[in-house]
Amino acid sequence: MLTRLKAKSEGKLAKQICKVVLDHFEKQYSKELGDAWDTVRKILTSPSCWQYAVLLNRFNYPFELEKDLHLKGYHTLFQGSLPNYPKSMKCYLSRTPGRIPSERHQIGNLKKYYLLNAASLLPVLALELRDGEKVLDLCAAPGGKSIALLQCACPGYLHCNEYDSLRLKWLRQTLESFIPQPLINVIKVSELDGRKMGDAQPEMFDKVLVDAPCSNDRSWLFSSDSQKASCRISQRRNLPLLQIELLRSAIKALRPGGILVYSTCTLSKAENQDVISEILNSHSNIMPMDIKGIARTCSHDFTFSPTGQECGLLVIPDKGKAWGPMYVAKLKKSWSTG
């Protein structure tokens, strides 16, 4: 089954690298990552090396596909080695590149699996969602992390927000494709500017995920329009301010004692460590949470670059572990004001 499916998807890998973006990244990341950048660049510019993880949908479990994945040598993410790993979430990885095709959206039929970059599950796992909790996914489209959250636990309330109207449609379709009707009833989808959410819903949530708009390194490298790419690069310096404003809003929306996870899919220090440092320096009620244990536990599946932060991890693409880029930081709101 998998061989047939894989053959169908091979034709999608011919992509053109955008030189404007690559040159820009070369200058920045050769400084920030040092020698590691050579390997990272090779993988980011070679889609034939990319790997795709298969997240199984517990609401329409694909037993046959799971057997096939085992036969093909796929293994489960973390293989039970991560404390608090939710038993209900099953994600399969292969050591080799390639992908099976996505399923088509069919009204009334739940999809059996979701293809994703395995590193994008780290923010979800860092959130440690429990049954009955109120959770906010502030920048939720296209919906993969919301889907993954619902594989981990059954929240009392899940608020999925997306400000971009086109991406909002994509988010709604993703939720409809994976989540059964009874659970859809505990999900609210909104189209609010995320920077205003904290004022609209103050101290409402136990957990907040901010998977922020960022320099999406993988997709930017394959921009088909070089003029548009140049425009993106010139506007890139504005992203940290937006990310900080989104985090400030998320902090307002979080109840005291609640957990906030911030993530991006860029290698950029200005959008990662620097944003978190600014938040920690300007909010006396926000505490960093040590997540180095995740890096220790996951080193056989992911390669991590030093961040200089106990609360922050950066997954970088590597040979045979072509996951990332993915930055994850975990913070806690204390009971004191500030």
Break the fold down into its secondary structure elements and pairings:
Blueprint: H1 2-9, H2 19-33, H3 36-44, E1 53-56, H4 63-71, E2 75-76, E3 91-93, E4 113-116, H5 122-127, E5 134-137, H6 144-152, E6 157-161, H7 165-178, H8 181-184, E7 187-190, H9 197-200, E8 205-211, H10 217-220, H11 226-235, H12 239-253, E9 254-264, H13 273-282, E10 286-288, H14 292-298, E11 304-305, E12 312-315, E13 326-333
Parallel strand pairs: 5-6, 5-8, 6-7, 8-9
Antiparallel strand pairs: 1-3, 1-4, 2-3, 9-13, 10-13, 11-12, 12-13
Helix pairs in contact: 2-3, 2-11, 12-13
What would your notes on this structure say?
With 338 residues, the protein is of the alpha/beta class. Helices cover 37% and strands 18% of the residues. The strands form two sheets. Strands 5, 6, 7, 8, 9, 10, 11, 12 and 13 form a nine-stranded mixed β-sheet that branches. Helix 2 (19-33) packs antiparallel against helix 3 (36-44), helix 2 (19-33) runs parallel beside helix 11 and helix 12 packs across helix 13 (273-282). The longest helix has 15 residues, at 19-33. The protein is globular, with a radius of gyration of 19 Å. Mean pLDDT is 92; it is low at 1-13.
